[in-house]
Structures are given as structure tokens and as C-alpha cells.
Amino acid sequence: MELDKFSYDNKIVRAFIIVTVIFGLVGMLVGLTIAIQLFYPALNFDFQYTTFGRIRPLHTNAIIFAFVGNAMFAGVYYSMQRLLKTRMFSDTLSWIHFWGWQLIILAAAITLPLGITTSKEYAELEWPIDIAITLIWVVFGWNMIGTILKRRERHMYVAIWFYIATFVTVAVLHVVNSFEMPVNWLKSYSFYAGVQDALVQWWYGHNAVAFFLTTPFLGLMYYFLPKAANRPVYSYRLSIIHFWSLIFIYIWAGPHHLLYTALPDWAQSLGTVFSIMLIAPSWGGMINGLMTLRGAWDRVRENVVLKFMVVAVTAYGMATLEGPLLSLKNINAITHFTDWIVAHVHVGGLGWNGFLIFGILYWVVPKMWGTKIYSNQLANIHFWLGTLGIIFWALPMYVSGVVQSLMWKEFNPDGFLVYKNFLETTVQIIPLYMIRAVGGGLYLTGAILMTYNLIKTAYSGKFIADEPAEAAPLAAVPAATSGGWHHRVLESKPVLFTVLAFISILVGGIVEIIPTFLIKSNIPTIASVTPYSPLELHGRDIYIREGCVSCHSQMVRPFRSETERYGEYSKAGEYVYDHPFLWGSKRTGPDLHRISGKYSDSWHYNHMLAPDAVSTGSIMPAYPWLFEQSLDLEQTAPKIRALRKVGVPYAEGYEDTANEALMKQATTISENLNMEGIEVAPQTEIVALIAYLQRLGKDIKSEKVAER
Amino acid sequence: MKSTNAQDMNTRLVNHRNLFRVTLSIILFVLIGFPASAQDAPKSFMDDPVNHPMAPLYLVTGLLFVTLILVMVVAVYMLRILNLFVKQAEEERAKRLGIPYAPTVSWWSKMWDEFNASVPLSQEKDIDLGHEYDGIRELDNHLPPWWKGILYGSMIWAVIYLFVYHFMGSLPLSGDEYQNELATAAEQIRAYQASQPVATIDENTLAYSPDAAILANGKKVFVSNNCQQCHRADGGGNAIGPNLTDQYWIHGGTIKNLFQTINKGVVEKGMPAWGKVMSPSDVRDVAFYVMSLQGTNPPDAKKPQGNLVAPEATVAPADSTKGGK
Prior knowledge:
The complex is a heterodimer of chains A (708) and B (325). Chain A is an all-alpha fold.
């Protein structure tokens, strides 16, 4: 048979590799910065654009979407062409995808420090960027499906399955979670409120980890690990079973981020059981990866690429066992809101994603430049720095999580909390924060060495822009399938395969989300809960802008230690006007859901101005700009209109008088502060923030009074 | 405002230094492996390890442990060297006889294969699917039995879990769990208080006395970030709370007033009700401690607020307790 002659596009891969390395370094540097800010708050510089709350999402977005995302695209573009024996469907689409994605990253890098954020974790970018992401993602999918359709390889290899699942699921997650009502070009409110918003967000958040950080990288592992080890993949049937069970079960597990919250119990239980059922499907990937190295372990010792990959796959196995265990209620009761979760995420991020990316880069760069790696020794040093970095990163955070959580929960025999002041528990773990920063520093140093090594490698070779290849064209009629296995047939029909994958990932979301929206009893209403006043609304938007939610939860869980410390536990009905929800996922500082009335206005005023002058040893940054900037009263009306459209019962025409109400409330607070000798204009931002803080959890308190 | 800022900066500097000191001491605790509460337990091993009765036992056990590890390391190392010799000998023998060298399969890898139901490496060709993707071949090994066990086991567990929690209702969901926790705690507190007859504190008959133990505990409560946040560590007051060292009081200056202010708070003025989170004796101790601060005249104290209250007779000897300040 005549062989087709064609070439693989390496240029697009090179472009994605370059940005991977650049954004990797940037993202890690920002990570190191915020790690240091946690024990040395002066590093916030009292400057709004570099404060923890604003640049923490910059770190997560840079790592997830810029570093890991670009690496994913580099790996997918490299492996897909070769696995399907064809060039990408369209070079133009490839480049639109590349530049579009980089522009999105640029937009994120500008908007996040400016405080333009939706506050929903890993979905912080505002609505115009969300639309851009959707468009670029479609371009990526179009290019991918096109490439699959014009393939010269009848049967799709397992890596391709994972790429398809990634494309389909991320599209669904992103679109559903990004439903939001614009206020203006740079501000929107989530379409969903409270409990529902929380459920949709963590359905998204959990599966962003699953389908952005896991499935594409399993696909990459299935290509690069057997290539680098030169060994056959261990078990085809394991691939099939773990692929389908993984994508089906993963989607259900989101509610494990919301155990013991106001989410209905049945949804929490589904989150728990599906997380436990996820152990085997996840481990299927690890087994297939590690067992592929059977008979090649002697090479692992010498081959730095394999070393990185082995640690990556092992870290994957550890993280995917740990995750389900953290979903058990009794373990979650201790670990949730603590540094343990942060450690867990970083075992996955630094170990699985980071190390797999490093392994792939060390393998693929010499290949694409037709040369050998510049320095094996330097790569080995990188490996050890990275490994030590992970250990120094994760271990102190595990200790910190447990220590702090137990301190939060410790009672003395009289029945009072031993550590009445949250801060007492914070100062205990600061040394651990320091060790963690050392770990991050080691990891970053390794990545810098890699950058140097890769640049030197590229210069020592010659870039092969279009790698020549040849293959037989696909026969018009499919060849008889070997063994008559029906899944073998399925794996030759990409469209049907995509549809089935789509159905598998829809089931879990539909079963959990739809009843939470439709069945009234899931969110019992509370009569005394009313919409926020215009001033409180502005204050809430400042709370969102400053990323307060990064460190403060608004979810008192039904534990004695929490109701004793914070007050009555949080009820679903209290959040019905919260667009978006602000439950938070980490308590670096105390919960704020019952903060109203706990301190005086002047306390908040002084505390926001200089937290550690008020609370000795506090690691909270100061917010001096809130005392200089004024509210934009022009935005009051559009805000109220937007919220009314998503169901908040502001009366028609309320927006016309809203600013009067706002000024009235602000003047009261300002006069109140004046009595304490503080001069502040009513429309200053701090006044709105104080109004919001003094409102938090108040509704249910007045309800209690009314009951008596 | 300006002077407060300078003051703030000053306190901050001090705080950073304190932070550093706390840090150093805590790193030591972490290294020893007992970070949180070792400080408070006065009779623990860590306070005086040398004279502790268990010290010899710990020492011997520790040494034994270290020796054991060393022996293991040496043993493993010896085994590896022996293995290497055997391998070399076999290779040489194979070379001499002119047959290809086939390494013997260790019992460990045999057991490992069995555990995973893997087809041995030597028979790998039999399960090769006969296809390659850019040079990648696929085997078709069995699913590891233990893996299937986890898969099916977790599914069965899931069904049982949902059934027990949501259909039988035999295990408490979060709301009930909370009520149970409260009930258990109430029972424990009751039992504790019954076993530990505490002198009830009657605020009407409370009389101040500079008892060293009470003042020490009062000070501890005061500075562990409860009171000092708003009244400064030395009681001199800051932008939020009033000066506690002068003779001017907003809510009354008798010991009874102090006890009540601390116990019930003045919430509208920002003073929390500490009686909700502290035992009555802690409230009393802190009230006594505050009383003992009378006339300490800390530098930069806040200017007087409220009314002048003539010192109670019992306050007179307070000077004798100032020694430590």
C-alpha cells in the first residue's frame, strides 16, 4: 500500500512549552510570595495589588491554567499527532488556540491583582474572560475532534480517550458554573445563590481538579511513560475499566468539599460514597503507570525522566487515596478548613502535575531539537531539589493542619474552649509556615535549574519544526476487529465515544444538582432573612474584591467547638440572597458568619487599618486603601438591578432610592465612629465593609430574639 | 492619629521580635515532636528528661531501635553484595557455556506477580495485543485481584453507607450528631463539676485580695490575646479599649463592677461578655489582675475616661504585687 507522507507540527508544541516554563516560574514565584506573606505580613507591602487576598487567586490561576494548562496543550499536541498518525487538523486553529489562551492568561494576570474577581475558586475570572475561555476551548476541541476524524490510525489509543473526556467535561463544567449576571463589564453576580451556588461551584471545583489536572495528565502519562520507558502498557483492560469508572464516578464526588455544611445531608452522603468508590478507578491509572515499568526498574535508577515520572505517578496514587479518606466525615471534621487540605492539593500539584511535566519536558525537548539533554547531572539535582521541596512543603502543612484543628476543638473540663482566641492557634503554626516556604523555595530552585538546562539543551541542537512522518491512509472500510470486542469497535468510533463519555459525566451532576434546585425542602426558608442593604452590598463586594474568602469562612459547622467559638451553626436558609456564596474553604483566620455585633465598629476600623496592632501577632495584612477610596455610588443601581434579575426580591424602583438609604446607614456608622474619636467620611469604603461585617449572621440572631 | 501610627509601628516591631522568639522555641518543640501543649503540662517528660523515672527505659529502647535499624541496613547491604556475586558468577558461567544469560527470578517478584495476577515478564508476548501506537505496545494483563477487591468492596460499602444513614436512620446525620455531642459534653461537664466542688463565686460578696496564684492566672488569661487586644498588654489602653491602670472607670471601678463588666460585657460598647467563654474563676482572676494594675502608670497610657472612683480599701496594699511588672 502507498504510504502517505506528512509532517508533525512541532512549532505549536514548542510555543506551548515555552509558555509552560515561563508561567511555571511565575506561578511558583507568586506561590512562594504568598507563602512568605503568611508568616511575614510585611511582604504584603500595604499595597492593594500585592495583598494576599488578591494574589492568592493569581497563584492558583497561574499554576492551574497557565503552567499546567499550557503543559497539557503542549503534551496533547505532541502526542495526539503521533498517536493518530496525522498533523493537527488545522494549524490556524492551533495558533488561535495558543494566542487566545495566552491572552486569557494575560487578562487574568491583570484583573486578579486589580480585585476583579467572582470569588469562586478556580473560576475567579470575570464574565468577559469566561466567554473568551469558552470560545478558545471550543477552538481546542474543534481542532482535536478534527484531528481525530482525519486520523490514519483506526483505533484510538487510551491517551486519546482521556483527551476527549477532558474536552467534553471541562466545557460542561465551565459553562454551567459561569452562569452570571453582569453588573458592568468587570463585575457580575453568580446566577446561583447560597447552597446551590456552593454545590455548583464545588461540582465545578472538584472536577476542575479531575478533568483539568487529572484526566489530561493520565492521557499524557499513557503516552510519555511507555515511550520513555520503552515498555508496553501493562493492561489494556485495566485502561478500559479505570477510564470509564473514573469519568463516571469523579463527577459525583464534589459535595465532599461541603461536608457538615448547610448542604442537604443526602448530597453530602453521595459525595462521601462516590469519593470512596473513586479509590480503585484512580489507582487503576497508577497501577497501569507503575506496572508498565515492570522490567525497566533498573533503568529508573539512571534515567532522570523515568525518575520524575515514577514520583509523579506515586504522588498521584497518594493524593487519590488521601482524597477519598478526607471525604470520610470523621476525618473531614478534623481536616477541613485546615492546612491539611492545602498540603493534599500540593502533593497533587507539585508531585503529580509538576513532576510529570518536568519528566515530559526533559524527554520531549531533546527529541524536538534532535539532541541530548544538556546536563543529566543538573536534571538529577533538579529531581532531588524537587523531591525535597515536596517533602518540606507537605509535611509541615500536615502537622500544622492537625495541630491547629485539635487546638480549635480543645475544651477544658469546665466546658470552655482552651484556646478562646483564634489567634492563639495561628501563632503556634507559624514556624511550620516558614518550613513550608523553604520547601517551596527548593522546588522553585529546581524549576529554575530546569529552565537553564532546557535552554542549553535547545541551543545544543537544531529545532525540527516539521517532523517528517509516513503512514498508510485509513482504509475506507474498517478492518475486521480483532477478538470481536465491542469496546474495540467503540474505540474506533470517535463521535459515538464522545457522546457516551458526555453522558457518563452528565449523570452525577444532574442527580445532585437538579433536586437541590427544585425541591423546596432542601433549603428551608427563614422568614427573618432579608436582602442586603445597598451599603452592605457594596461592603460585600469589597469583601469579594479583597479576597477575604481566601482566609475566612462563612460557614459555622454543627460542632460544639464551632458553635461555642462562633455562635449558632449556619443554616441553608440564611444564604438565599448570597450571589455568590462566600463559605470559603480555608480558615487561616476565624469564621466570620456570626461576626456581627461581636466587635464595635471602631474595633473593625482599627483592625482593618493595622491588624497586628489590635491583635498582637496577627498575620492579617493591613488594608489602608479602604480608608482612602470612596464607594462608586453610580454602581448601586446596576447592582440592585442585576441581583433582582437573579431573584433577590428588591422592590421595583428601589434602585432609585437606594443611595439615600445607603447614605443614611453610612452616616450612622460614621457618626458612631466619630463618637470614638474617628473622623471618616460616610462614603469611604471601610464604612461599607464595616456595615457588611456587622450584618453577617445577624438575621438569625434577631430571629432567636423574636422566638423568645 | 499620627502618634498612634508611630505607636502602632513600634508595637509591630516588638511583635516581630516576639514572633521570632516564639518561632524559635516552637521549632524546638516541633523537632522534639510535641508541638501544641507540651508547654502547659508541668510534669511531662520533656520538662526534666534527665531525672524522669522512665528516662533509662526510653534511653535503652531508643538505643535498641537505632541498633536495630543499623543492623537491618548492614544486612540488606550484605545481601545485595551477595546477590551481586551470585549474579556475576552466573553470568560468567553462562558466558563459559555459551548460553544466553537469564537472570533468576526472585521469590519477591514471583510473589508480586501472583499478588497482581500478572503474566510473568518472560511470557509477555502471549498477551501482547499485537498493535502499536507510535511505537507503544499494549499488554492485556488481568486486573489485579486486590484492585478488583477495592473496586467492588467500595461499591458494597457505598450501598451500606447510604442505606444505614438514609433509609434505616440508625446513624446520626449532622444535625443529630451535633445534638448528641452537646448532650455528651453537658453530661461530662456536670460529672466534672460534681467531682470537683468549686467555690461558687458570688459577685456581691467578692473582695479583692492580691493572692499571687490568682493574679498569676489572671495575668495569663489577660495576655493570651483575650484582653490585651483592646486594653494593651500592660493595661494602658489603646485606640479601642480604655486605660485600666488609672482611677477612672466608665462602668464602675469596684471589684464587683469589674467582675460584672467582664462577665456580662458591655456589648454595645464593644466589650464582649467573657462569662460565656470563661469559667467564673477565670473571670474573677482576671478582675483581680485588672485591679492589681491600679496605679502601675504604664508609659503612653490612654487619657482617663469615665468617672473617678476612689480606690477601695483593699486596693491599698496592691503596690506590693507590682514587683514583677
